[in-house]
Amino acid sequence: MSAAGVKPAPTTKGVVPFLVIPKDGGAPYLAGSKCTKCGEVVVGTRDTCGKCGARKGVEHIKLANTGKLYNFTVVHRNFPGVPVPFISAIVDVDGGGTLKGNLLGVEPDPTKIKFDMPVNIVIKPVPQKDKEGNSYLSYFFEPRS
Ligand SMILES: [Zn+2]
């Protein structure tokens, strides 16, 4: 609750609703949901299962911080101010779930990027702030050696 005209102090937020920053100061993580009936794992918190239709028994979990590169594209054109080229990737998270994000630490050259490459899923600050001065955390993929 804030009085009219009083701006809240800038804070750090996740760029997506499923990037959770614990209020107790714990490590940020990506939230997922796992169906205890069929085992389906999805990104984000759900109360029902989209695969088997279960209305009960969907647990909220922390997604793994590792995965494998499923697919990618090298982006050469984007909005003004967004540095290019960069690699937009789809990663299958170990244990379930699929994420889209940017792959860092690899030359944006298709001949140097391997499908099924093991990656770490890392959470880092983004350099930009919004007009209220809030900072943001995002998730990225980095090759796992
Ligand atoms: Zn299910």
Any overview of this molecule?
With 145 residues, the chain is mostly beta strands. 0% of the residues lie in helices and 42% in strands. It contains no helices and 10 strands. The strands form 2 sheets. A 5-stranded mixed β-barrel has the order 6-7-8-10-9. Strands 2, 3, 4 and 5 form a 4-stranded antiparallel sheet that branches. The model has no long low-confidence stretch (mean pLDDT 94). It binds zinc ion. The site of zinc ion has 8 residues, from loops.
Q: Which labels suit this protein?
A:
145 residues, mainly beta, five-stranded mixed beta barrel, four-stranded antiparallel β-sheet, 10 strands, 0% helix, flat, binds zinc ion
Number of discrete domains: 1
Each distinct ligand: zinc ion
SS-derived structural category: mainly beta
> What is the spatial order of strands in the main beta sheet?
6-7-8-10-9
